[in-house]
Model the fold of this input.
Amino acid sequence: MGENIESCSCNIIHEDVVRRVRKKIPREETLIDLAELFKIFGDSTRIKIICALFVSEMCVCDIAALLKMNQSAISHQLRILKQARLVKFRKEGKVVYYSLDDNHVQQIFDCGLAHINHK
Amino acid sequence: MGENIESCSCNIIHEDVVRRVRKKIPREETLIDLAELFKIFGDSTRIKIICALFVSEMCVCDIAALLKMNQSAISHQLRILKQARLVKFRKEGKVVYYSLDDNHVQQIFDCGLAHINHK
DNA sequence: TTAACATATGAACACATATTCATATATAAA
DNA sequence: TTTATATATGAATATGTGTTCATATGTTAA
Done:
């Protein structure tokens, strides 16, 4: 017994609980992916960008102006949002317009907001 | 016009859009709080702890055994979760049992999970 | 072509943060 | 009291990350 339970400095107090929980939780990869997703929402610049795109598609320059940040910082953050497939873009000449690429984004945002407002 | 729009290196392309978005988005403090909340979910150790506590209340030692991490690391993360009022605890002798302190936690978790599973 | 502009991107830097180690605190058992 | 155990916590360290700067890319206008 307990072949997976030896790498912490303390004794097991409730081995049954540990085993039961281990069986019920999603597999590690899923939880890591989930943390990665929330990490993307966990930066105020990215949250502001996401929130802005709820209202309207915007070009990089507009977002920079809105947030009073330089264009490079916004581009870097947009790249992260793009890689996570949370935003999509279309090009029109020199200008690149970004918009949201996932319906779940609003849901996740609203879930969090409900928590904030409820306190 | 444009008294708030001068701190980025590029010209304004769609001043009307920027103004409209600025009026509609929540105030900055709210968005910062929201990012702080998601940041807490954005770490795999904390997500695993939260997920485990959906199943059962657990003591520190059990969580450490479950995640195969040392007790100190778990205590530090529990402190962060406690400060965010996401978990609560009860003491029973030497043992401290942690459990979830907020109904929204499950909702937020599920929202994120739905996104992960939908891809 | 040349110049101007919107955006992207690599490197550097500063700062945040997760884990570990050592140790403190608190409680129970001997 | 002494010892053992569960948990908490400060310091140190290593790693991650957001922003800036310089510059590259790509497109439009002159």
Summary: Chain B has one domain: 15-117. The CA atoms of residues 39 and 103 of chain B lie 18 Å apart. The two ends of chain B are 44 Å apart (CA to CA). Residues 1-7 of chain B have pLDDT under 50 and may be disordered.
